[in-house]
Write the structure tokens for this entry.
Amino acid sequence: MPSAETWAPATGTTVAGPAPSRGRSTNRVPAAAPWLFVTPSLLLFGVFAFAPIVVSVVLSFQDVQTFGGGEFVGVENYSDAMSKPLFWESVRNTVVFTLGTVPTSTLLGLLLAILLNRRLPGRGVIRSLYFLPMVVSGVAVSLIFAWMFNTDSGIVNATLSELGLPRVDWLTSPGWAMTTVILAVVWGRIGFCMVVYLAALQNINPSVLEAAQVDGAGRWGAFAGIVWPLLAPTTYMLVVLNIVFSLQAFDVIYVLTGGGPGFSTTVLVQYIFRSAFTDGKMGYASALGVMLVVVLLLLTALRNRLAKNLDEDS
Amino acid sequence: MTAITDRATPLDEPTPSTATARAVSRKDRMTPGRWLLWTLLLLGGLVMMFPVYWVLVTAVSPGGLSQDNGFSLWPRQFDLGIFSRAVRDQPIWRWLANSVVIAVVSVLISVFISVLGGYAFSKYRFRGRNLLFALMLITIMVPIQVIMVPAFVIISKLGLVNTPWAVILPSAAQAVSIFMARQYMQAIPDELIEAGRVDGAGELAIFVRVILPACGPLVAVLTILTFVWRWNDFVWPLVALQSPENYTISVGLASLNGAYSHPWDQIMAITLMSMVPVLVVFFVFQKQFVQGIASTGIK
């Protein structure tokens, strides 16, 4: 981690601003002052985040059908999930989706950031081409991909035909639908990974790299020996963030495939939504949600642990 | 967060003063290998842009440039009438107006309370501060689907279902924004605040006269990010808004999907219309947008 003395441009969450000034005297500061400033946020968080979270945990131990009152059933919702093939299928789909999106977008982002960190003609414009998909909404992405990957009249299959290749049922066959969904999500996410890596690369002192060249380290050697280790904290953060994004990914799947065909692209959040709003099983959906959040929190704890170890090593 | 202070921006080209240095720098010379790399990067970029290009092409091609009648990568006919047919058949203007109202009001509330909250978390010590901050950050980890049912019950008890407030209020408090505001304000020297206190200014006066004027770049980044997030929101508005005339453009657009009566040229025309505001933000404020994304790394 860069020290506070060397000015460090943004590298994601890991870098704070310049040295936070401390040791302020607390005399003459009314005790109510900070509360005045946090109350608006606190109120909204309380009503629309904290309260619903607590209620969800409570619901997960109840048998609640649609918005009616429920009765406590202990861990029945949880054991129910464990015994349902659909639950395990959604877990499997979630894992496939995560494995399909996280390494690809992270590695492509890294590659592009390294290449576009050099001075090249029109670099800014080329970067923009990769950034732009970031602002396109999940719904728009879905419709664009639904159209491009349409079996009968989409441009992708037309191109395949033109090349003498067979057409593919991109969205209508269970085998291909997951691939198409992953492509659509990766398209929107490469730019994000690239932006974060670019910011991290700006943070590496150029003289460090020049020293490596002088030492006779080749380009690959300089990358593997110097750049990659220096980017490690960024990579950890990005991988965890990408996993979190993938575990929460909903819009693209909902609009592009609706979780189908069959159950083939139904990931966990999709299954939660469906259990709550289509099947009306609120308690069961809440139990699924609690399990997912526990996994997400464990991931975050793991990341913090790794980041801490890394800090201590350096 | 230093990136959004008034320093040179990290993703920028160097300032002109280095132009001479650039000219003599050996490693920047364009060798054939570098031209090859450059070509590959450009081609990759064009592939990335293709879906956006394809929306444009389809939206002006009658019949949606269906590839049944031969292969073409550009419009063979040009028909802007597709847009007028799309807005005639669907309440597009209404959906866009709803989105504008929701996004703008969300930005106003969210940026305001995030700056206030970030100030409290960065410049005051108070009981429960760290716990509160941690609890807020945990909300980032909770997918909206998990709290949707209780949140819906709450907005219906408040009588807000099917109104813009049902969308605005639940997403107004954003942990990511408060986190960014806190990071930013940690770089503001405490001495400024102390000086204000010595002068006998009240806490609120210090915030308004000392802190706020230093927060321009922060407010710019938060405004841009919040606008794009709220404009693109889908699943919560889908649940909270129930009648079609109250839909946001994202919800309305999604409702056209799978309805076979809608030809692809019109769907792409509406998709394009839904993208215009965020594309404008992207092209006009790309620097702030990219820095905001880079410096949070969270959303």
About this structure: Chain B touches chain A through 120 residues (CB under 8 Å). Chain B is about 65% helix and 0% strand. Chain B has two domains: 25-85, 87-296.
